[in-house]
Design goal:
mainly alpha, rod-shaped, single chain, 2 helices, 70% helix
Length: 63
């Protein structure tokens, strides 16, 4: 005799597996770790401060 298979369970399992595959693909495309985000924010802040410190004031800007 053949094994009885619940098709609803198979359908749900297949959907979960596909969802996991899609999620892993999106993590590769868009995901960044918390450390990478913090590093980039720190570099951006450093660059902004460096540019602001090198800004020259013109005579036109003074009130």
């Amino acid at each position: 005799m053949a094994d009885i298979v619940n098709l609803n369970d198979r359908r749900k399992r297949k959907a979960r597996e596909q969802k996991d595959i899609d999620a892993s693909a999106k993590r590769l495309m868009f995901g960044r770790t918390k450390g990478e985000k913090q590093r980039d924010a720190k570099e951006k802040d450093t660059n902004v401060r460096k540019l602001d410190g090198a800004r020259r004031e013109r005579d036109d800007d003074k009130p």
